[in-house]
Amino acid sequence: MKNQVRELRGERGWSQADLAERLEVSRQTVNAVETGKYDPSLPLAFKIARLFGRPIEAIFEPD
């Protein structure tokens, strides 16, 4: 799944570790989501969307 997580994180000047802490997941999970190796669960996708103040559809899109 394509996503805008890396770009949104970069706009805020956050490291992967910063984002992971805010989402209460590991840095490795953030990396896997950003690189498309892991599709987040629906609860995690909602958490990411809320954190960035965007609808899920604006962050995640199917390949």
How would you sum up this structure, described in words?
The chain is mostly helical. Helix content is 60%, strand content 6%. The chain has helices spanning 5-11, 16-23, 27-34, 42-52, 56-59, and strands spanning 2-3, 60-61. The chain has a two-stranded antiparallel sheet. Helix 2 crosses helix 3 (27-34). The protein is globular. The termini are close together. The mean pLDDT is 97.
Give a brief outline of the structure.
This protein is mainly alpha-helical.
Q: How many helical stretches?
A: 5
As a percent range, the share of helical residues equals: 55-70%
What summary fits the major beta sheet? Answer: 2 strands, antiparallel
* Distance separating the two termini: 5 Å
Q: Which word captures the global form?
A: globular
| Poorly predicted spans | none
Number of E-type strands: 2
> What structural class results from the helix and strand content?
mainly alpha
Radius of gyration: 10 Å
Average of pLDDT: 97
What is the N-to-C order of secondary-structure elements (H for helix, E for strand)?
Answer: EHHHHHE
Could you give the order of strands across the largest sheet? 1-2
Give the oligomeric state: single chain
The percentage of residues in β strands lies in 5-15%
List the main descriptive attributes of the protein structure presented here.
single chain, 63 residues, mainly alpha, two-stranded antiparallel ribbon, 60% helix
